[in-house]
Amino acid sequence: MNRIYLDHNATTPVDSAVLDAMLPFFSRDFGNASSIHTFGQRARSGVETAREQVAGLLNARPQEIVFTSGGTESDNHAIFGVVNAGSGALKHLITTSIEHEAVLNTCQALEKQGLAVTYLPVDGNGLLNLDDLRKAIRAETLLITVMHANNELGTLQPLAEIGRIAAEADVYFHTDAVQSAGKLAIDVESLQLDLLSLSGHKLYAPKGIGALFIKGGTRLRQFLYGGHHQRGFRPGTENVAAIVGLGKAAELAHAARTSDAQRISTLRDKLEHGLLSRIPDSRANAADAPRTPNTCNITFPGIEGEALIIALDLKGLACSTGAACSSGAVEPSHVLTAIGLPASEARASIRFSLGRHTTEAEIVAALEIVPAAVAQLRQLSPTYRTESANTVK
Amino acid sequence: MFTQYQLDSLPTAADPQPGLVAVAMSGGVDSSTVAAVLLQQGRAIVGLTMQLWNQRRLPELQGEGPAQHRCCSLDDVYDAKRVAQHLNFPHYVVNFEEQFEQRVVRPFVRQYLSGRTPIACTNCNTDVKFEPLLLMARQIGAERLATGHYARIRRNAQTGRYELLRALDDSKDQSYFLWGLTQEQLSRSEFPLGELTKEEVRALARDVNLPVAEKPESMELCFVPNGNYVQFIHAYSREAGKPINDTAGDIVTESGEVLGRHAGVHNYTIGQRKGLGFSTGKPLYVLAIDPRNNRVVVGEDDSLHSTSFEIENVNWISLEEPAGPLRAEGKIRHKHDPSPATVEALPGNRARIIFDSPQRAITPGQAAAIYSGDVVLAGGWIK
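Above: the input entities. Below: the structure tokens describing the complete assembly.
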């Protein structure tokens, strides 16, 4: 079976050029980047080149990039790091209700330690309201952490405006850019960001590697204790091959971003419009918001998303009901709930996320597979018949 | 003038079934072997493992060490996945926690608190496995659902009805738990182990090197750790914000004489002897539970026996609701040998069962299944 992969927000394949760049660092150039000898120097050179490449993607300086194990560690490091470096006088954080669990659960852990957290609501498109943000800032506010692109909807938050508000209030500003890094232009300087998290496996680098941008001068308590690697910010022998992979992936994304974005968003729109026109009563979520070019989230009333995912997978199409981490959870997606979908509709929503290697032929095939699967589910759905009957009345 | 169910008119096996079959996989040896058997028959299968209960709930019930051999433990889900990988067929974990709680756990707790002795497995079969799971199986393109139950299904060509039969292996028979299945559910179900013994199933599992071939059987209620249902009921009620306090009451004789105190009617089941908390000259048993007066009635073994009782929510399986009385055998709990009885349907999906000889501890909340030889004619809840 030729399988079609439309779940790039969950993870991406390692690009072949990335893999090629990594391979020498497993064997030939295997050294410890902290060693003095030539083996070590070669590894160090790979790490520092990667640091420059990642910095280049963000318009940061290389020394502002710390490599981590991924998005979750970066988010934890950023938020705990700022809080633990403070005097303890500033006891308030601001975030949104649609963050990834890596941010939400970190904030909840801090609440248990006595900090106050404001979770800003979002509108039907998943966008926060800047006035809400301004009003939420208090004298003791320490940090604003707002994701750039939402993983389930693709909605992009107005980082430039948030950066301005944070700077005026002299509050630290962190963004989880896991879903946008490599897809969209990010300039940490013009966005006035202090901290930014990104993850390798969302941009065609391997899993288990990520980065945290820490603006020069930011007071951040280290998260792990150990040797002096990465200037003490992140001890532990560097995962050289993965770091090299992330660097290469950042370079590739930087070079291909504009053309990729155009091509992918054209395919995404074709998929979205095609599904909406072929499947009665279907609705696209957050379609009016600025979005990442690759994401579309559609509600098919009357179906269980979990069943549709399985039906589609059996037909060779991979997509998801939202964050991969929440599969298996009883609760409907907190993101879809936050944009106002009732639980039944949140459960009836599917995310398609395209990628660099998605072809037009795959989208054409998806436009055959999905409507047939939705029709099959609806035919057996007691709720869909009821809903139709109600609309007839 | 009795209707006698004609056992010798049994039809041949069901029609050959093309199409995808979903296998309900618990991670145990039985349902894993179902997958192997169907694959050997050349059928296309997909495995579905239900996530029914979050084992991290009610943390006070967790003992030392990891939870093992209970349904929905991560180990079991992992075992089911390993079997699917080993035999190379698609497998998915599907979440039915909400349905399980609404249709199995909550009624289980409510029934105990009202002095009855429920059977959660029957609710789980009728209201979860063969309801939302079967629906999901069909929605994902499967024609039918196969499970590891030891029971048999046949279609009777003369009556056109699907019939439920005991397993060939009497010691493993689970037909008692399946009396709630409707004709529609039976028409879409398969029990490939119904003709096999447990030893044959283990041997098959070993033959194809199933990673779970030597896994011990789980006999407990899957959501109740350590089989301590009283502790579970307390913890669950506390979590729901309705802690059970002050449930103590009197233990009385049939004539109303107070013999002692009890700690809540949910601690008792009819026929119970141990744990009454006092001793008299003769052995005493729980005869009745009276939740309205918060009393537990005890007496001697003789008083435990009775012949006549009613069942409700009756489901007629292998024959339509009969107009007159029927000679059959009644089975009133899993470990009860079916005993000759006369059965008469009553209005409102009820029936009266009159045993030929008195039976011990006919317990409200348990089910009674009505058999004619190997065939399950009907079943219902004991009032």
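Note for the figure: The CA atoms of residues 249 and 293 of chain B lie 8 Å apart.
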